[in-house]
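Worked problem 6 (solution included).
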Amino acid sequence: MFLQKKQQIQVVEASSKLDQLRTDLYQLQDELATNPFGNDQLIVDLTEFSNTISVATKTDQVRALVGADESKTLEFKETYRLCTKKQEVRKDLEDTVMKTIAGFLNSDGGTLLVGVRDNKEITGINVEIDKLHKGSVDKFLLQFSNTLKKRIGEQFYPYIEYNLMEIGPLVQIFAVECKPSEFECWLDGDDFYVRTNPATQLLKGPKITQYVKTRFSK
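Solution. The predicted structure is:
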């Protein structure tokens, strides 16, 4: 009941933002009709408006995903590396994130949302950023980027996009979106993971050979 009410509030907020965006767009259209030439500020305003729509749309997409169930292409993680009980770094938590990304790349792609519990409660990742990176978003992203480079590989950058998304006041979710890779991904150069519904599975021996032949035949 609480989650449903929370989602209703988010829908109302999103609708209000869209109404405001429509109003702003009408104002820009009026300005363009009045003075179609020589208005440099209008170009700046249109660029900012376009960027605002892009961010708003992306945020709403993430909110919609939180309302869905975990699946072959969707995974929730409460944190990236921080153990919430002991408030310390745990490598096994990082391992599960990297395994999920590798699994997405080797399967049909997917989205990983960090800062969301399995019951869809949005906890955000702000505490982890504050605790492990002294509140620095840049340091958090740099640490993730370095780990991704070391454990997944730079060759997979074209298939991976990640961002911190503002979901509410002082609440951020870390969203990692993966496209299906055109070649196989080996985590740490050794382990081969795939996504099943809705889990990440380690393949071994002949199963890897068969899977690779089927999945990467092209």
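Discussion: Strands lie at 74-77, 82-83, 88-89, 110-114, 160-168, 171-178, 192-196, 199-203.
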